[in-house]
Amino acid sequence: TTQKPIALQHGAHRIGRRTDADMEKWRAYGLGQFIHWGLYSIPAGEWNGKQYSGAAEWLKSWKEVSATAYDSLMYQFNPTKFNAESWAETAKQMGVKYVTITTKHHDGFCLWPSKYTNFTVANSPYKKDIIGPLVKAYDKRGIDVILYFSIMDWHNPDWRYDIKTREDSIAFDRFKQFTRNQLLELLTLYPTAKGLWFDGTWDKSWVKQAAFADSLEKEMRAMRPGLIIGSRFRADEYGKRHFDSNGNMMGDYEQGWERKIPEKIADVHGNDWDCVMTVPENQWGYSKVWKGHIKTTDELLEMLAKCVSLDGNFVLNFGPKPDGTLRTEELDLAKGIGEWMGINSEAIYNGEYAGLVKQDWGYYVKKTGTNKIYMLVFNVPVSGALNVVLPSRTAISKVYDLGNPGQNYAPEEIGTSAYFIHLKQQTFKRPFVIVLETADNS
Ligand code: JFZ
Question: Domain 362-440 is of which CATH architecture?
Fold first, then answer.
């Protein structure tokens, strides 16, 4: 049944993917880095000797924490070991193509010297801008920067969770102007940033601002052609978020894949998307204690492979310490991922959904404009034979190991366009990539 679309003034601006060069570049990134840094890195999930069980960056919302005491953390923010170049170098070696950095999280503390509030780095003992040097250092290495910005702001007295009275509405009008000022300020100060990553947009107060948010989005896009904004910025006039009341995605890519990955291509509805992932279960800001399962390099690589095989990007979060350095666990993961990427990144950058039936050994990725299909292998069967089923009239002309291009395999044809790739061994220390070069056999 096809339902007639309803007329929307503040729904999706576009149906289908963007086709401009900025978005094509975003689509090709494959791997990204997220950075959550702010005042919350100082208590690191602990307050008066008690461990907060939620995400460290949400600590201010804990009933035991007084707002004044939390906001006074500004006077302790002094990351003397912060070196933007070294963060960017770690990211470069890891192989990331874009980074999303928290300019302001829910607590409202700004990592740039905003002139619209006193609650910024400028009034901390550190005094200096954090965002500028990061943008510069990442840009220098060809890594695109996206600015994370939380609409929800626990510090601004004009912020409301909902608008119930006339007073609320007057206060929230001021807050909307403050928000607009800060966003235009960020776009002005950091003209090379490629996009904005919005968060904290779920509260009723903001969901009711369809017209304001829509006009602000248009204003920002006019100011910065090519700007990339995900689906988590605004709601339509019926309060629908991410997808409007006609089911069309609002924004340039789907921003709902938070610590979860789609299972199959149908789940992403042909949209661009990325998955943002934490190393422990749910800690974005620096937390002294990492409870539960801590993901390993190879688990994260498998997530990366799965995302790319389903036309998405994979973004791994880092929560720097209050002194400005990265924790050892994260540095080790960056190194491990970077080592694998050094050999296999050809299968990640520009990688796309291959349109083949998924097999148990791992994930297929293809690259438009080439005759190559990449097999990202994570589970080797005891037989050592990898099953491959290609579309009819597709023949394999060459098979080799990406990490060892001299190592060729002779595929065994086991049926029409069905093959076994017999590996030379059954046990492997790390995931690896087999390249199939194909030829038209019709
Ligand atoms: C938000 C933040 O609250 C959190 O602190 C972190 O910054 C993260 C990246 O984003 O958390 C969310 C937002 C959306 C969902 C889940 C957690 N969601 O859509 O399921």
Answer: Sandwich (2.60)
The residue among 430, 416, 383, 377 whose CA lies nearest residue 399 is 377
Contact residues for 393 (Cβ-Cβ < 8 A; gap 6+): 417, 440, 441, 442
End-to-end Cα, the chain, rounded Å:
38
Q: Which residue is associated with the tokens 């720097």? A: 320
In this structure, which amino acid lies at residue 169?
A: S
Query: Among 304, 295, 399, which residue's Cα sits nearest to residue 29?
Result: 304
Query: Residue 102 — left, alpha, or beta (φ > 0 → left; ψ -120 to 50 → alpha)?
Result: beta
Please list every protein residue whose CB sits less than 6 Å from any atom of ligand 1. 36, 55, 57-58, 199, 256, 258, 276, 284
pLDDT single digits (tens) 293-343: 999 999 999 999 999 999 999 999 999 999 999 999 999 999 999 999 999
pLDDT band for position 393 (cuts 50, 70, 90): confident
Residue nearest to atom 10 of ligand 1 (CA): 199
ipTM of this complex prediction, to 2 decimal places: 0.95
Q: Where are the domains of the chain?
A: 21-347, 362-440
Mean pLDDT of 103-113: 99
HSE value, Cβ hemisphere, 13 Å, CA-based, for 174: 12
Where b means 16+ CB within 10 Å and e means fewer, 334-344 reads: bebbbebbeeb
CATH among 3.40.50.2300, 1.10.10.1590, 2.40.300.10, 3.20.20.80 for 21-347: 3.20.20.80
The contacts of residue 207 (CB under 8 Å, 6+ apart) are 201, 235, 239, 241
30-33-35 Cα angle (round to 5): 160
Protein residue with its CA nearest to atom 4 in ligand 1: 284
* Sequence-separated (6 or more) residues with CB below 8 Å from residue 367: 350, 351, 352, 374
Tally of CB atoms within 10 A around 426: 11
Residue whose CA is at the smallest distance from ligand 1 atom 1: 199
Q: 442: pLDDT confidence band, cut at 50, 70 and 90? A: low
Residue 53 CB neighbour total at 10 angstroms: 9
User: What distance in angstroms lies between residue 137's CA and the mean position of ligand 1's atoms?
Assistant: 27
